[in-house]
Write a structure and sequence with these properties.
alpha/beta, 23 helices, Rossmann fold, TIM Barrel, ten-stranded mixed sheet, Immunoglobulin-like
C-alpha cells in the first residue's frame, strides 16, 4: 500500500486586480504584501502564479523574470518574478511558472518614434505610434530595439517547420485551423470589446513545441519550483471551436490512418481508401458535414479523436520529460503540473506524467461531494488542488456577495467540503473571472485564514486516502463517447455532472455516485482504461482493500479487467453490476461467469437508484454500510485513513441560511461506523475550537457517535489506545461506560 500523505494547501494565485479585467497572459507584478498573505493562508503551493508572458514574446517573459523594478515601486514592495519566487522559497511555498500552451497573442501597442520604448501595451493612451506587438513581431524581429534580446538571440538558426521552411511568422505558423483554413481563436481569454487577439496554438506543430521548451528553460532558470502546463490537452481544445485542421494535424492523421490501414484496423470506407492524398478537412467539406457536430454523426470522428488523444499524450510527455531533464541539468528536481480542467477522459492518459494535478472544474458549485470523490480517484494518490471556474457555476454570484460582506461561511463551507472528500479547494487570490467580468476573485481574509490554519493544525488528521469499503469503477471505454454526446455540439468536452445536460445520454456512473453521496455512503472511484491508450491501476492489489466493487453499466471492459473482477470475487469480494457488462467489448464467457458468480448482484437498468444503492448494502457484512447516518441530516461525511492506520471522520454542515448569512447548527447528528480495530476514545475538533458534548458508545464492532448542535465542521478523531492521538481534545464525551473525559479524549469501552 502506498504511503499516506497529507494534502497541499493550494492558492489560485493569478493576483489580478480588483475592479479590472483579468488580462491574459501576463500577471500583475508581485509585492511583499502578497507573500505575507500567503504565509497567513498557510500556503504550500501556488498555481497560475508566475512568468506567463512567454506567449507574448520571450524577451517580455525575461522582463517578467528579471526586469528592473523602479524605485517608486520598490517603495511599496514590488518585485520581479525571480525575487518573488525567492521570497516564497523562504517560507516553503512552491511557485509554479505557468506555460499558457494553447495561447498565442497579439496586442495593440504604442511605441516611441525611434522604436526604442514601449509606451503602451493592451491599454492605449494615445501616445507615440500605434502598432501591434506579440508573437508575430517578435519572430520577425520587427522592433529589435524594444527589448535587450531579439528572436535570433534565442534561435540563432531560426525555426524550421515540418515542410523544411524557415518560419517567418510564429503566430500564423503555429495556429490551430478550422476546415476553411482560418485560425481558431482562444475566445475565452480575449477580453470582450478589446483589440487583443489570441489564437489557439497547436502543439502537434514541432515549431510550437520548440518555442514552449524555450519558455520552460527561462522559467526554470528563474528558479520556479515547478512548471504548470496550462491547457495540457491541446489541440483537443480546438475541436470544440471547429479545429484542428492545421497542416501538421492533417499530416500526422494520415500517418496514423496509414498505420491502422496496414493492420486492417479501420472502418471499411477508410480501409479501402487511398490515403496518400487524403485530407480530413477537405473530405468533411465535400461531405457537407458539420464539425464538430455530434461525434456519432461526424464521418470518421472516432478515428480522428483517437488519433488526437494518442498524439497529444506523446507530445505532452515530451514536454514533461523536458522539464525534468532541463531541471536536472541545472542541478534541481523541478516538479510538473498540468491544468486537467474537469479531469475527464482526455486527461486520463496525461495523469501519469505529472507530479501535481491542478483542475479548474467545469462547474464550480456550492456542493459537489460526488465530484470530489471522482476527482480524488482520478488523482489516484497524487497531490491535487482544485481551482474555481467563473463559467457555468456560482463564482460570479459568490464574488458579488463576498464583496458585499456576505456568504463568508458559505465560502468556508466550500473549502471544508473539499477537504472532507479528500481534495484541496484552492484559495483564490485574484482568481480569473473570465473575459467579461471586470473584477478578480479574492477570498475574505479572516474567514479564509481560520479555515487554512485549521487545516494546517490538523493536517495529520487529513488524508487523500479514504477508509471507504466500496469502490465504484469509472470505465473509460464505456463512457468515452457518452461523455462527448452529453453536451450537444461540444464533443471535445464532457459533462462531469449526471445525465441532465442531454436526457438521451445515459450515464449511470454519475447518477450512482451522486445518489451514494446523498445517502452518506462512503466510496472511492477507480478508473479503468481501454487497454491501449494508457495504463490503469485496475488490478487485484488496488481492489484488495475493498469489500465491494460497483460496475455501473460497463458495456466495454478488456478481458484482463474482467479477469481481475473474477479474481476479486474468488478472493471473497462482492460485485454489484448495474446494467450491462462487457456487451460490446471484452470476453463474453468471462462476463457470464462473473454475472453467475454467487458473489455478484446484477441490477437491470430499470432498477431505481435508491433501490440500487440498497443492493450494494445487501452484499456488505451484516448488510450495513461502513458508516450509516441516522435520518437524513443535511451534512456531508467521509472517513479518512491516516498514516498510522487510524480513522478520522470528517463532517460538514450544509445548512447555510442566506437570510441569516450563516450555517445553522443541526440539533443532533448521529452516525454508526464499523470499526476495523478497537476504538477507545474520541477527540473532536471544530473550526472555531468550541467544545462539543458528544456521546459515543462502542459495541459489537460498531462505534456510534452523537454530535449535538453540530456546527459548520466537525473532525472526529478515533483513538485506538489510551492517550493515542493529538493530545488536544476539545470534546467532553459522555460514554455509556461512565468514564470521565480527560485531555487525551474520551476512553470508550464496550458495554
Amino acid at each position: 500500500m502506498r504511503e499516506v500523505n497529507g494534502m497541499e494547501r493550494g492558492i489560485y494565485f493569478d493576483g489580478w486586480y480588483r475592479d479590472e479585467h483579468c488580462y491574459h497572459p501576463s500577471l500583475p507584478m508581485r509585492r511583499t504584501q502578497m507573500v505575507e498573505d500567503l504565509v497567513d493562508y498557510e500556503a504550500t503551493l501556488l498555481v497560475w502564479s508566475a512568468l506567463g508572458g512567454g506567449v507574448v514574446s520571450l524577451p517580455y517573459l525575461e522582463e517578467e523574470a528579471y526586469g528592473e523594478v523602479p524605485s517608486r515601486l520598490r517603495m511599496y514592495g514590488y518585485m520581479n518574478d525571480r525575487e518573488f519566487i525567492r521570497e516564497c522559497d523562504k517560507h516553503g511555498i512552491k511557485v509554479f511558472g505557468v506555460v499558457f500552451e494553447v495561447q498565442g497573442w497579439e496586442f495593440p501597442a504604442e511605441i516611441s518614434e525611434d522604436e526604442t520604448k514601449l509606451l503602451g501595451l493592451n491599454i492605449m493612451r494615445g501616445e507615440g505610434q500605434k502598432v501591434t506587438y506579440g508573437l508575430r513581431e517578435f519572430s520577425q524581429d520587427k522592433y529589435p530595439k524594444l527589448f535587450p534580446k531579439t528572436f535570433r538571440d534565442y534561435f540563432p538558426d531560426g525555426l524550421v517547420n515540418s515542410d523544411g521552411e524557415q518560419v517567418t511568422d510564429l503566430w500564423e505558423e503555429c495556429a490551430a485551423r478550422k476546415m476553411d483554413g482560418t485560425a481558431v481563436h482562444a475566445a475565452w481569454v480575449e477580453v470582450v470589446g478589446h483589440e487583443q487577439q489570441c489564437y489557439q496554438m497547436c502543439r502537434n506543430n514541432p515549431v510550437w513545441r520548440a518555442y514552449l521548451k524555450k519558455i520552460i528553460e527561462i522559467q526554470i532558470d528563474a528558479g520556479v519550483h515547478g512548471v504548470h502546463l496550462d491547457e495540457c490537452e491541446l489541440p483537443i481544445t480546438a475541436i470544440g471551436y471547429g479545429g484542428c485542421f492545421c497542416k501538421d494535424c492533417m499530416k500526422q492523421f494520415n500517418v496514423y490512418l496509414t498505420d491502422r490501414q496496414r493492420k486492417g484496423d479501420l472502418p471499411a470506407a477508410l480501409q479501402e481508401m487511398d490515403l496518400e492524398s487524403f485530407h480530413y478537412g477537405d473530405y468533411l467539406k465535400a461531405c457537407g458535414a458539420e464539425f464538430p457536430g455530434k461525434a456519432s454523426e461526424t464521418p470518421f470522428f472516432t478515428q480522428y479523436f483517437q488519433f488526437q488523444m494518442k498524439i497529444m499524450t506523446g507530445y505532452f510527455k515530451e514536454l514533461t520529460d523536458y522539464v525534468r531533464e532541463y531541471g536536472r541539468s541545472k542541478g534541481r528536481d523541478v516538479l510538473v503540473s498540468g491544468n486537467f480542467f474537469h479531469v475527464m477522459h482526455q486527461y486520463m492518459p496525461l495523469q501519469p506524467e505529472v507530479d501535481i494535478i491542478a483542475t479548474e472544474m467545469r462547474n464550480t458549485l456550492y456542493r459537489q461531494a460526488y465530484w470530489y470523490r471522482y476527482a480524488n480517484g482520478f488523482a489516484n494518490g497524487k497531490p491535487m488542488t482544485v481551482v474555481e471556474n467563473p463559467y457555468g457555476g456560482i463564482v460570479p454570484e459568490l464574488l458579488e456577495n463576498l464583496r458585499a460582506g456576505r456568504m463568508a461561511e458559505q465560502f468556508q463551507l466550500m473549502l471544508l467540503e473539499a477537504a472532507t472528500y479528500g481534495c484541496n479547494l484552492s484559495v483564490p487570490y485574484g482568481g480569473w473571472m473570465g473575459n467579461t467580468i471586470r473584477d478578480a476573485f479574492y477570498a475574505p481574509k479572516e474567514p479564509t485564514m481560520a479555515v487554512q490554519k485549521f487545516l494546517k493544525r490538523n493536517e495529520h488528521l487529513i488524508s487523500d486516502v479514504s477508509g471507504a469499503e466500496i469502490v465504484v469503477n469509472y470505465s473509460y471505454p464505456s463512457y468515452y463517447y457518452r461523455e462527448n454526446d452529453a453536451v450537444e455540439n461540444d464533443p471535445g468536452q464532457a459533462t462531469m455532472l449526471s445525465s441532465t445536460v442531454n436526457k438521451g445520454v445515459v450515464m449511470p456512473f454519475w447518477d450512482i455516485i451522486k445518489e451514494m453521496s446523498k445517502q452518506h455512503v462512503p466510496f472511492d472511484v477507480l478508473i479503468s482504461s481501454d487497454g491501449e491508450l494508457f495504463q490503469d491501476t485496475f488490478n487485484l492489489e488496488s481492489l484488495s482493500k475493498y469489500k465491494c466493487l460497483v460496475l455501473p453499466d460497463n458495456e466495454k471492459m478488456t478481458s484482463e479487467q474482467l479477469a481481475v473482477v473474477l479474481g476479486f470475487l474468488d478472493g471473497g469480494g462482492r460485485v454489484v453490476v448495474y446494467g450491462r457488462l462487457a456487451d460490446e467489448m471484452g470476453d463474453p464467457e468471462l462476463a457470464r461467469i462473473i454475472l453467475a458468480h454467487p458473489g455478484t448482484v446484477h441490477c437491470g437498468k430499470e432498477e431505481k437508484l435508491l433501490g440500487f444503492v440498497g443492493s450494494i448494502r445487501d452484499v456488505l457484512p451484516d448488510r450495513k454500510f461502513q458508516i450509516e447516518v441516522e435520518g437524513r441530516p443535511d451534512i456531508g461525511l467521509h472517513p479518512h485513513r491516516l498514516a498510522d492506520g487510524r480513522t478520522a471522520v470528517h463532517l460538514v454542515n450544509y445548512q447555510f441560511h442566506r437570510e441569516q448569512d450563516r450555517v445553522i447548527p443541526i440539533e443532533s447528528v448521529t452516525f454508526r461506523m464499523r470499526a476495523d480495530r478497537p476504538i477507545e476514545g474520541l477527540a473532536l475538533h471544530t473550526l472555531d475550537g468550541r467544545e462539543l458534548d458528544a456521546e459515543c458508545r462502542n459495541e459489537d464492532g460498531y462505534l456510534t457517535v452523537t454530535i449535538p448542535s453540530m456546527p459548520l465542521y466537525v473532525l472526529v478523531e478515533c483513538l485506538t489506545e489510551r492517550g493515542e492521538g493529538t493530545g488536544a481534545c476539545k470534546s467532553n464525551c459522555t460514554c455509556r461506560c461512565g468514564h470521565s473525559s480527560d485531555s487525551k479524549g474520551r476512553r470508550c469501552q464496550s458495554d
